[in-house]
């Protein structure tokens, strides 16, 4: 059926007859003739049967048009042919052919009207095509006329105009190319002028223009040349950026930053800047140190240039150490100041950019700039710590490269002050505590201070052993603040702030609050001002000590005093010491008037003049020097304060050893040395005093060095004589020594609050203990030292002998006192006169006078009791004579001294009155009055009560005396 349908499609335009004629011979053979067709149509055939016949046709006949049915049927023939079978098969094929032919004929007839109608349409189309051909011919003829008359001429004009336009553009391009080729010269000029932003702007514009004309062969080469030029500009820009690390210039840096902004490399520029700062620090310190090393080496040897910086620092000489350190800090200051000004520039620049609000067109661009600014800000803030760390490490290498233990004190203080100033710079630069610098300078300071303190202790021992204990003449208003070593206390307490603060103080209080970076932002250098200030300070100290003027003042006083002596009555001369000590006013108006006339100058000028020696002044200066170290370098504050305490300890121990050590009073019951003072002296002897023999000192020197503190005990100078009674056994020297120690203790007291602020919190108990147990005991040395004078100044043994010759068992009441009282009073008058003689050379303060008189009176009273206790027989009248003698002694004594009450007055009176006690009262007396010796108590029992009590009662009282454990006072 497919074949039939395809056949019908191909032959659709022909009539059935024509279609039949076009069939191939075979097909024509297969198709039945008209008669057959007619017969077939005429013969009634059941459609169902007809369809069954068609369906029985083999499928292969419908396969394709190229099917060879004859060949197919021949191949189907069996090997042995049977005519009957062949005829039957032929009939079957005919029936099938007839059925197909009938079906085809029916289909053709069915489509006949449609075929006719389509044929009519084709005919009409043919007619229309012929008409269209005529129209086209006419149009072509008319177009040919228009071409000749209009198009040829007009388009020629247009072509010429287009060519002219192209040539004009070409000329403009050629001029641009000519300008581009000359750009290289202009770029070189701009780079020489350091107009980096202009050069980059020009170069970028040229690149943009070159990319427009890149189709020209000459421009393609120019483009690569411009790229090389741009890279060259970036290199020069990097060099220009590195110049800002040492000497920051606002205009120069603004150009550089604008140039990097045009390149779009703001962040890269910041990375490069930090690299340049790091390199600048390294190069700067290396060149400074190298210059000093080569200068000191004195030859042109270049071996130093190849050294590492750390090794180079070890070749710095002691003489060039401080100048090199100062120049080093100056150079590093310039680098850090440049970085500070760089940050300041970026802050101001950011504020200027963020103040106007960006419009919509610039929103994207501003977003990028915000990112850049944020990156730059973080990078700069992070760079602060890095740069300061580099500075610390470089200075640390320099500090540790030299052993400073042999430096002079002033030189070492300068080093500390410079480093402390540098640490202040670091704190203001990035808030750093400069742990690296602190650790390195602490190590050097401990090393230096160990040697320095050892030398100072040895020096102090030498001073003490050569000290003649003469009064050092100073002004009456002398104060330690006047000394050069204590000038720092009048300045700011923070380390090494003095130079800048003092520089600022001259211009007003407001500037004192400015930081170093604000003070020296545009000019100057804090380390330069430091050195200049140091020189001025030294000159000021030399002028402020004023020894010469004091000497003149002292001489004037002495001359006046000597001249006036002849006019002063002897009675006033005896009372001279009382005025000197500032005792109570005298009762006589005339004497008061004379004194006001004769002694007023002395009272005003010298009454309160401090008593000190050259050694005292030396110790005070040492304390000031130590405190300077402490003030500048707080990490070793405790070590320094410990050494300061040793200076005082050694001075106290020396004064005690020279003037106060005596076995005579050890057994006395006067309590001359308190337990606190004894503990302090024992502690000093154990911790500070070297007890080895002199011959062994060399052998144990290493051990002493390890202990760092042991010093041989000092020896009193042979020029100091303490055995001469005419000088009251060296009273002047004793006063100078003891009162200079008290003066030194007072200065320590005034420094306590300052030292307390320096001391670490954990070590403050040490300082408090030092003051409470050592400094406060200085005045307690007066008792043992002046007791020695008092014990020898009056001949107590003579008085005992005189008392032994007195008869006390008299029967009549006497109205005249005994001779020994007059002798004793004469001794006191002589003592008073000698005291006045001593006071002409050395002022005797009131406490000293009181102690001396107290000792003498107490010794005299105890001698009286001892004399009374030696009496073998005594009557009531004799005891009354004792009272008379003692009252006479007191009455005359009160005229010689203003000391009230009279010391140990009750001691004598109570002993005399004990004679009148009963047996029971005596037993209670023995228990209550342990200040009396066993001999004195026994004498009361034997002599006073012997005639009133029996032997048994006496034995009981004596046994009570023996049983009492009498602790020594």
From TrEMBL:
Residue ranges, annotated region (Disordered): 1-27
Domain Vacuolar protein sorting-associated protein 54 N-terminal: 54-345
Transmembrane segments: none
Pfam families from the UniProt entry: Syndetin_C (PF10474), Vps54_N (PF10475)
Family matches, as InterPro entries: Syndetin_C, VPS50, VPS54_N
Domain Syndetin C-terminal residues, every copy: 728-962
Keywords in alphabetical order: Coiled coil, Protein transport, Transport
Leader sequence segment: none
Listed GO MF terms: SNARE binding
GO cellular component: cytosol; EARP complex
Ranges of compositional bias, category Polar residues: 8-18
Keyword Glycosyltransferase: no
Coiled-coil regions, chain positions: 216-243
Any one GO biological process: retrograde transport, endosome to Golgi
Protein's recorded name: VPS50 EARP/GARPII complex subunit
Organism (species): Takifugu rubripes (Japanese pufferfish)
Gene: vps50
């Amino acid at each position: 059926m497919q074949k039939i349908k395809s056949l019908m499609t191909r032959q659709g335009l022909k009539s059935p007859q024509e279609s039949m004629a076009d069939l191939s011979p075979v097909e024509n053979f297969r198709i039945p003739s008209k008669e057959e067709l007619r017969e077939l149509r005429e013969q009634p055939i059941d459609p169902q049967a007809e369809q069954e016949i068609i369906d029985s046709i083999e499928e292969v006949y419908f396969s394709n048009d190229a099917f060879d049915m004859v060949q197919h049927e021949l191949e189907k023939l069996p090997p042995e042919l049977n005519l009957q079978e062949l005829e039957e098969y032929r009939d079957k094929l005919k029936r099938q052919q007839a059925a197909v032919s009938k079906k085809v004929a029916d289909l053709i007839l069915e489509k006949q009207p449609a075929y006719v109608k389509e044929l009519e349409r084709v005919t009409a189309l043919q007619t229309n095509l012929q008409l269209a051909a005529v129209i086209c011919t006419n149009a072509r003829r008319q177009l040919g006329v228009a071409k000749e008359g209009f198009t040829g001429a007009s388009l020629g004009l247009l072509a010429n105009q287009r060519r002219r336009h192209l040539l004009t553009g070409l000329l403009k391009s050629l001029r641009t190319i000519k300008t581009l080729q000359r750009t290289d010269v202009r770029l070189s000029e701009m780079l020489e002028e350091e107009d980096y932003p202009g050069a980059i702007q020009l170069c970028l514009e040229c690149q943009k223009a070159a990319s427009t004309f890149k189709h020209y062969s000459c421009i393609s080469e120019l483009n690569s040349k411009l790229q090389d030029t741009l890279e060259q500009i970036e290199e020069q820009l990097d060099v220009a950026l590195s110049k800002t690390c040492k000497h920051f210039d606002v205009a120069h840096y603004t150009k550089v930053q604008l140039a990097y902004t045009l390149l779009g490399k703001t962040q890269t520029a910041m990375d490069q800047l930090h690299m340049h700062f790091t390199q600048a620090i390294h190069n700067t310190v290396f060149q400074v140190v190298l210059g000093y090393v080569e200068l000191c080496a004195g030859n042109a040897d270049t071996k130093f240039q190849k050294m590492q910086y750390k090794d180079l620092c070890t070749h710095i000489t002691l003489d060039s150490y401080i100048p090199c350190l100062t120049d080093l800090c100056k150079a590093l200051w310039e680098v850090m100041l440049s970085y500070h000004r760089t940050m300041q520039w970026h802050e101001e620049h950011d504020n200027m950019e963020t103040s106007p609000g960006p419009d919509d067109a610039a929103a994207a661009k501003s977003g990028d700039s915000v990112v850049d600014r944020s990156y730059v800000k973080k990078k700069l803030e992070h760079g602060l710590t890095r740069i300061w760390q580099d500075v610390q490490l470089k200075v640390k290498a320099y500090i540790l490269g030299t052993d400073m233990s042999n430096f002079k004190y002033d030189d070492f203080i300068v080093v500390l002050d410079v480093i402390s100033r540098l640490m202040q710079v670091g704190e203001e630069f990035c808030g750093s505590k400069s742990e690296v610098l602190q650790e390195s300078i602490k190590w050097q300071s401990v090393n230096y201070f160990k040697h320095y303190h050892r030398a100072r202790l040895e020096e102090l021992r030498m001073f003490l052993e050569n000290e003649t204990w003469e009064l050092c003449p100073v002004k009456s208003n002398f104060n330690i603040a006047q000394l050069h070593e204590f000038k720092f206390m009048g300045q700011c307490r923070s380390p090494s702030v003095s130079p800048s603060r003092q520089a600022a103080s001259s211009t007003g209080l407001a500037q004192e609050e400015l930081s170093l970076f604000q003070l020296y932002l545009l000019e100057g250098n804090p380390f330069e001002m430091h050195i200049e200030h140091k020189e001025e300070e030294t000159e000021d100290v030399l002028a402020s000590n004023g020894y010469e003027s004091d000497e003149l003042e002292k001489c004037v006083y002495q001359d006046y005093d000597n001249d006036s002596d002849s006019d002063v009555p002897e009675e006033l001369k005896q009372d001279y010491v009382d005025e000197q000590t500032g005792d109570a006013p005298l009762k006589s108006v005339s004497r008061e008037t004379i004194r006001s006339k004769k002694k007023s100058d002395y009272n005003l000028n010298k009454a309160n003049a401090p008593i000190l020696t050259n050694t005292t002044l030396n110790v005070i200066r040492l304390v000031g020097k130590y405190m300077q170290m402490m003030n500048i370098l707080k990490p070793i504050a405790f070590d320094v304060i410990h050494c300061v305490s040793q200076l005082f300890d050694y001075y106290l121990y020396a004064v005690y050893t020279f003037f106060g050590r005596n076995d005579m009073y050890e057994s006395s019951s006067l309590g001359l040395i308190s337990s606190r003072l004894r503990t302090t002296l024992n502690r000093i002897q154990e911790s500070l005093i070297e007890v080895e023999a002199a011959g062994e000192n060399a052998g144990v020197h290493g051990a002493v060095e390890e202990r760092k503190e042991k010093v041989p005990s000092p020896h009193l100078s042979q020029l100091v004589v303490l055995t001469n009674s005419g000088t009251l056994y060296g009273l002047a020297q004793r006063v100078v020594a003891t009162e200079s120690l008290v003066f030194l203790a007072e200065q320590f007291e005034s420094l306590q609050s300052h030292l307390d602020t320096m001391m670490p919190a954990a070590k403050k108990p040490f300082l408090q203990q030092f003051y409470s147990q050592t400094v406060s005991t200085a005045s307690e040395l007066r008792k043992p030292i002046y007791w020695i004078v008092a014990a020898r100044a009056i001949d107590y043994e003579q008085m005992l002998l005189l008392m032994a010759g007195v008869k006390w068992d008299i029967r009549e009441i006497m109205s005249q006192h005994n001779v020994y009282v007059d002798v004793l009073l004469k001794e006191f008058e002589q003592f008073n006169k000698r005291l006045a003689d001593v006071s002409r050379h050395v002022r005797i303060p009131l406490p000293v006078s009181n102690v001396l008189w107290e000792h003498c009176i107490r010794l005299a009273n105890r001698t009286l009791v001892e004399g009374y206790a030696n009496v073998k027989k005594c009557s009531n009248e004799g005891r009354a004579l004792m009272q008379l003698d003692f009252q006479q002694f007191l009455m005359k004594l009160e005229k010689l001294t203003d000391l009230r009450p009279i010391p140990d007055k009750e001691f004598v009176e109570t002993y005399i009155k004990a004679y009148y006690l009963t047996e029971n009262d005596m037993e209670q007396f023995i228990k209550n009055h342990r200040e009396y010796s066993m001999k004195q108590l026994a004498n009361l029992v034997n002599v006073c009560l012997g005639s009133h009590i029996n032997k048994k009662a006496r034995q009981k009282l004596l046994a009570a005396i023996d049983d009492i454990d009498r602790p020594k006072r």
